[in-house]
Amino acid sequence: MSSASPAPLLSEPSDELLGSASPGSPVPAKHTLDHSLSDRAGKRAKGRTNKSTWNEARGPYEERGEKARDTSYHEIWYCKHCDSTKKPNSITTNLSRARKHLRDFHGIRVIEHVERSDLKKQQHGTITDLFGRQEERQASRDLTEEKYLANAINIPAFEEALARLLAVRNIAHTFIEYPEFHAVILSCNYMARDVLLRSRRAVPKLLKKTFAQHKQGLVKKLHNSLSSMVHFTIDMWTSSEQKAAYQAIVVHFVDAETRGVAQALLSLREFKGSHNGKLQAKAFLEVVEEYDLRGKVGYFTMDNHDANDAMLDDIAKEIDGLDPVARRLRCSGHIMNLIVQAFLFRSKAKKIQEDEREGIDEAYERLCRLSEREEGGIITKAQATEEWREFSVLGKLHNLCIYSRSSTSIYNDFKAEIGRALPRDNDTRWNSWFRLIDVAIENRAKFMDWIQENHAKIEKDALDHNDWNELGDIHAFLQVFHQISVRQGRENTLDEVLSHMDFLHHHFTRTKNRAFSGPRFYARFHVAWLKFEKYYQLTEQAPVYVAGILLHPALRKSYLSEQWKRNPAWVSNAVKAVRKIWSTDYKSYQLPDEQQEKEQELDEFDRWRQKVYSTASEVKDEFDRFIYVSNLKASNGLVLMILRRAHKLGLDNKRPYSGGLNRPSERISPSSAVWLLTYSASLPCLRKQSESSQAQDGRLDGIEVACLPKW
């Protein structure tokens, strides 16, 4: 075996290596070992141990000046297989190193028989040496035991577990070659040597095999899903290091087995060149055909990039009945980020709205370029500091943060005086700026003292009274956005998208009516309102946002009547649009074998009560009956509990669910529960794609590694 790759854990010395040297061999004939100094060793010479190791040794070559023992009377081991002394440990007094030399350079594993009294002397041996002794003891057991141990090995289960370990934990393929990994497996069952992969080159084949097996199961799950549609979240992510783009496609559906919402990563496609909307649409349609989903394509959640609009237009040309406008949901987290970025980095108001909107994008792009040049060292620190000052008080605060981290001594002095470090801002997440401002305001007194002590070095970035007032106004305005962001990071549901937008509208209106710290803050507020208004109006294009409100037991139609009471036409138009979706896509939808299950599971009383209820109800349409009843007054936690029970029991088809209430009008039928479940699945969850994409940064093993951890 080549010295470049490790030998198999249980390889045996070859006959060629163990045999005597041939006359033409470059290895000199074995000399008789010199034991002339053994008497002088006194008590040291109690009989040679490690005989197997010494069998691989030769005697010293006196013509080369070699000696049998060193000055401390330790016997010297000379490798009989080496024709020179240049290889490491070919000459040594340490027998552990000698065995390592034999294994690494000659592929020979030496297993020593150690007496019980000598065990403590061997505790510094390698892991593989210890395992070797364990295997030697086990090897003497009878064949019957080996037969049972061999039959106990579940090869498919082992391969499945190994593939999942490598994919989920993103472990390097060389892991399967580690002797320590082999030792762990074989110490549990020494007959498992045949299931171990010996080469990293076998890993891709294993991953493809496992992926194919799981893919078949996923295709079946999607085909048998309880929802009439499956929904998609699509995100395009760009690697800054590899300069490549990846399109992640996540599917959401109601699993027929668990009767709950499920999701799976279907694709992580690499785009090496252009990734415009047409190319992204082509990639998506290939996935649809691959998983046989053409008849079940539902809603799309994506960010606000224009390429996504073009992609949906092309998809709609291939999928019958798909409205690219009504089926397009927008990532609420991305909308929040755009609004706050406009608020933070556009401080010069213009008279013309269109110019103002262009100015917002221009200012943010300039910030991103500045951050990239600063991080990459493209510009000097002095140049970066000067350019950051053009962003007014936020630029000053950024420069102070950078200076506080400019050296170890300054960093430690700052932490000692303030009590903590300033968190770094970045150009992609607005909440990094909120945390920076939050820490600065919380430690204002200490921070001002530190600025005063270092005034000579940071004079141009020192914060004055007006700066602190502006930071206070910025912090107060962003506090609401931060609260919503925290909620979205937990269990965000479809109904919260529109309610969050309504709350932000209330926040803007309330802020507009109070005094500002200065004209710069008013300019920030103005451009943030323009950005918010744009996306607030876009929610009208997707009636499914209103569906989330109407199907929420604590909200329903009365929420719309209260929030939009100044515009009653909005309410009637929104309800009309949702009713159209209900009538077209869900009213006639039946779960698999629903009627048969009802007949089997409902007793005579349940069937009688259901008949009486359907006859006595004044409102015949199930959708209208649900949205027009009085709201369920409950805390958010209770509502969530009721919704979960509705999801579970409503889909079980055992009886119409009343949500723990006595009024028949509160009941949620299976078809309503499916509607609520499937749309709740279509939420902004771009975090999933981000996790998948980041796992691939620097090591792409293909779609198998990307998808398996998410299945």
From TrEMBL:
Keyword Hydrolase: no
One function term, GO molecular function aspect: zinc ion binding
Low complexity compositional bias, start-end: 1-20
Chain spans, region Disordered: 1-66
Keyword Acyltransferase: no
Record's subcellular location: Nucleus
Annotated Gene Ontology cellular component terms: nucleus
Biased composition (Basic and acidic residues): 31-42
Record's keyword terms, sorted: Metal-binding, Nucleus, Zinc, Zinc-finger
Coiled coil regions, renumbered to chain: none
Protein name stated in the entry: Putative AC transposase
